[in-house]
Design a protein that fits this description.
This protein is of the alpha+beta class and 376 residues long. It contains 13 helices and 10 strands. The chain folds into 3 domains: 98 residues, no CATH class; 133 residues, no CATH class; 34 residues, no CATH class.
Amino acid sequence: MIPLPVFEEIIDASSVAPRIEAMLPIGVRARQLKVRTLLAGMCLAQADHRPAHLTRVHHALTSLPQADQLRLGVIAEWENGPNRLTYRQTERTSGLVADALAKDAPGGLPSDALAGICDDLLEASIPEEFKDASASLAVDWTDLESFSRPPPAKGGPCADPEASWGHRKNNLLRREDELFFGYYLSAAIIMPEENGLPIPELARRTTVPSCRHDPVRALVPVLTRLPEQRIPLGDILAGSGYAHRDAGAWALPLRAAGASLVQDLHPHDRGPKGTHHGAIIANGNLLPEGSAPAAGTRPAAPRRQPRRGRRARRQDRRAGPIQARPHHERRRRRLPPRPVPRGHGQDPLPAPAGLHDPGPGPARGPAAPAAPAGLL
């Protein structure tokens, strides 16, 4: 478990606790639980793999050593003696913070103030020696169920009005996806540069939009804010789900911010299209259809042969197995499997054994053996 001083150092480096305190209303009686202590209790509850419940935060704070409780204000001196923090006081401070950082109406996306505080906390959690070690990020999203029960089937309120229904993949054989009620958690993880030194994969930015919003479009403003914070954008590694989005929703904003996209092609984007030359996967390589091979590289995939009609196939069957054999062999022909090494571009094929470059002039085969002496 991560010790408490580490969380206190991150909270102090981010300077978010004083900013949140300035946003809270001032009451007649001073609050015993400060925002800094509340954030430390939330971090302790998550580091101990506890559910994100407010009762767990209160238990994490009241379970600290007595010296830490006195220092953090969990135990405070009142007129009648020392007073230990109660759950009602924890709920009061948490409710004030949630109201100050929330929107006027629930919309499924975090407010600008909440997004800025989350960005500062994550940036402060990265050690100084790794802040400028790499500008490459790997992005992805996952499902995050809500603590609340879904609304009734006929509609109505629920305990979490921000959550919504979404789809997620499962490992079952007969169903490709299933419904869940909650959010999409998107994260951007620091990745080492190509041919660079290994670095720890730390989370640099996250966002938790509702399922009624596209997680790809919700992550774009989070990433485009990095250059404004003097954090350059390098390679953005993404899966095929990001590549299948509209250019204005993902690729264009990030390229305008200085990022280079490194992402997989969606299965719907592969293969020849109607009026556009698509891409074909041949022998483990992604090749453009009909392109001329460069010197020393793999040949481009041949164009797909037109499908023979019903009359031609009937004539082949009447002709017998001997005459129809070349056609069927041509249809069953496949490229032999060959291991493809990792690397950029296309690797040159090795020359067959026994054949050498004859130089300019007509192609020649291997030289015939000389006749033995005495036979001429």
